[in-house]
Every structure is written in structure tokens, then in C-alpha cells.
Amino acid sequence: MALWGGRFTQAADQRFKLFNDSLRFDYRLAEQDITGSVAWSKALVTVNVLTQDEQQQLESALGVLLEEVRANPQQILESDAEDIHSWVEGRLIEKVGALGKKLHTGRSRNDQVATDLKLWCKVQVQYLLDATRQLQQALVSTAEANQDAVMPGYTHLQRAQPVTFAHWCLAYVEMLARDESRLQDTLKRLDVSPLGCGALAGTAYEIDRQQLADWLGFTSATRNSLDTVSDRDHVLELLSDASIGMIHLSRFAEDLIFFNTGEAGFVELSDRVTSGSSLMPQKKNPDALELIRGKCGRVQGALTAMSMTLKGLPLAYNKDMQEDKEGLFDALDTWLDCLQMAELVLDGIQVKRPRCQEAAEQGYANSTELADYLVAKGVPFREAHHIVGEVVVAAMGQGVALEAMTLETLQSFSSVIGDDVYPILALQSCLDKRNAQGGVSPHQVSVAISDAKQRLKQGAS
Ligand code: ARG
């Protein structure tokens, strides 16, 4: 059933219909369209368009429809209705007859679609918040189990200073905590009801929009009807939340892909999240992680696409805005999948401690310690930095670590060096010394783990 047609003498070209219809993707809004319709039917009683009895009939038919949709959402796709709004109205009329035709009084698909999409976003945000928190939980558990796994930390992908695997995990907990708080922020601005704004100028029926907002679980109702039907800021915000979240996940993936290489060998990924090569029998590829890294692209694309679609759109609703859904659905589905997949990857990860330790001991990661030692003996830092640079060149020439050099050799670079230098050069001391807030010392890491656990238990980001 088309929702319009009175003013048309010719049927739509089939190719135009296919081009114009949105049911094949907006069928996902079915539950929200039904919920919004129930609330609207209640509002229509307050303005005497429907009697209590008529509203009851509509509400119970919509309730049955909701059950049918939940049992089999795909059935919607068999219809040739233009969009989900036409489909719901059509099914309602099939169930209750002419009474169903009263429901659209004072409502437009413009305020309807805005309402449906916001309701849908609110549900998705909850799924994303849960998944973000679960991944943080998994990272905290992995951190807890690997507090003593020392490995090289990198800058410029050059071994820089030793860190622990736990500290690495906690870095991602921080990123995810920010992702979580970004979603919470988005939710606040999103939680405002569009229903009752009509096509663009407001509804002609004296409806209490705040009451309508309450029925739908929104905190308030929007303030300007023109803005309301043309506002898709929440779509842009969610897409940018997703873009940043996916950037974080792609970095997580890249780090682990590197840690899992034969060259690094710091971790071994579980067979459950890797796959083999059709040609090379020895291979075990980190496909789950590569896909997380790769899928970041389509999410950034969706944000760009939506920004470009909205740019320069005149007020109020324009059909361009129908383009908001596919990108949003895909981006949020992708983000959710990747959060869950990242959790699965962590679940079976094995940290190869001896190899991590060995790598941390190589690469002169304790050079800063030697410089700090010289500073403590009164050598100005810039000079100390230069001296240590020379020591490193010599050590590299001998193919040994700093701590393997004899005291005599070390003293040839600076006479202030004594044999109290050796404990300073030990890996553990490099870690222990970084004990200011946020540092890698075992104490700070254990504080960070308990803080994160506390925060996750309380549900705050
Ligand atoms: N399918 C449309 C969308 O997604 C619904 C709103 C249509 N409104 C209209 N005036 N044609 O945006």
C-alpha cells in the first residue's frame, strides 16, 4: 500500500520505485516504528481523534504485529511497501480495517523516521556500551595475568624502554574508556523526542509532546520543528564515535599483528581466531586482527559519506536524508562485531614471556637509565646523553648489552661510573623507577588494574 497516490495519475516507474524505496534497509526500524505508533495513538486520544476503545484496538493489533516482527523480521522484505512506515501502517490496516487509517493523523513520516531512528540508536548505543565494557574487562584480566611479562616498549617502532604486557593492555583500556564516555555524551544529546513535529512546521493537534516523549522513554521533546525533522547530528556523532573507536581497535590489531610475527614472537594467537594458507602449510595468519584493522576503512567512509550528504542541505527534510541509514547500520554493526572479535582474540592469547624478556634486554632499552645514573653523579643531562650514546656504539661493536660491559670499559667513557651502576641497568630497576602516576612500575600497574576494575564494576567510564 502506498501512503500517497491521490494526486498522481501515473504509476511510478519500476526503476524509480526500486531507486526510491528504503524498505530493504529500513525494515530494521520495525520495532521502533511500532513503538512510536503506539505512543502516537495514545496522543491521538488526548486530542479526541481516537476514542479510548479505538486506541485499545490499535495498540493490541500493533502488539500482535510486534510479536510477528520479532518472530520473523525477514518477512518484511517480502513486501513491496515503500518503506517501514508504509509497511507497518499497511499491516495495521489489514488487521483492524479502516480504523488503521486514522493513525497517521497529525503525523508525518518526517517526524516518524526521525523518532524511529533515534529510538534505534538508543538501543544500539547500549549494545556498544556493553561490548566496550566487556572488552575493557578482558583487557584488565589479561593485564592482571601479565603484570610480570616484561617486553620492549617502542617509539618509532624502535625499541625504546621496557614496559610490561600489562601496561600495554591498560593503554587500550584507557582508549576504550574514552570511547565509552563519547557514547554516553552522544546519548545525552540524542535522547530528545522528535515526535509531534509533523512534516516540518509542527503538528496541528494540541499534543503534549513532553508526555509523548515520556511514553517513548526520551528525557525531553525537541524545541524546534524545522530543526527536528532535518537534524541528523546524532548520526554524525555516532559515526564519529564509531570512527574513533575503530581507529583504536585498528591500532590494537596492528600491535598484536606485530607482536605475533615470527620476528617479534611476543605472543601466540589462538587457533580459534587465525586461519591457514591454502598453499603454505606452515602458516597461521592473524585474520581476525587483520579484518579488524581493515574494517576501520569502511567506518571512516560512512562518516565521510554522511557528512557530505548533509553538507549544504536546505531546511527542512529532504530525501537525501534517507541515505543516513545504510552507512550508520553498517558502521555500528561493524564496530560491535570488531569489539566482540577483539575480545575473542584476547581470550586465547598466549604471551611468550622468555622471548619478550629477551627482546626487552636487547636494543639498549636501559640507556636512559645509564644517563640518569650519570646525572645523579653530577654530570649534566645533555653531556650524559652524549656519553651514553658513545657507550652504546661501543657496546654494539662488541655485540653485548650495556650491563655486560666491564667496569673498566664503562669507566673509559666516564670516570664517575662505579660498580653501583649494574643494579641500575637491570630491567627490573628500569620498571621500578617509573613510579609516578601512569608509569610502568609494578606498583602503578597494580593500582591502575584495581582502579579500572573498580570503575568497571561501578559502571562509570
Ligand atoms: N524513507 C524515508 C527516510 O528514510 C522516510 C521519510 C520519508 N519522508 C518523505 N517525506 N518522503 O528518510
TrEMBL record:
Top class in the EC scheme: lyase
Entry keywords, A to Z: Amino-acid biosynthesis, Arginine biosynthesis, Cytoplasm, Lyase
GO MF: argininosuccinate lyase activity
Positions of the Argininosuccinate lyase C-terminal domain: 364-431
GO cellular component, as recorded: cytosol
Catalyzed reactions: 2-(N(omega)-L-arginino)succinate = fumarate + L-arginine
Pfam families for the chain: ASL_C2, Lyase_1
Keyword Oxidoreductase: no
Keyword field contains Transit peptide: no
Cell location: Cytoplasm
Pathway as given in its UniProt record: Amino-acid biosynthesis; L-arginine biosynthesis; L-arginine from L-ornithine and carbamoyl phosphate: step 3/3
EC number(s) stated in the UniProt entry for this protein: 4.3.2.1
Segments forming domain Fumarate lyase N-terminal: 6-301
BP terms from Gene Ontology: L-arginine biosynthetic process via ornithine
Predominant cellular place of this UniProt entry's protein: cytoplasm
Family: Belongs to the lyase 1 family. Argininosuccinate lyase subfamily.
Protein name in UniProt: Argininosuccinate lyase
Organism listed in the record: Duffyella gerundensis
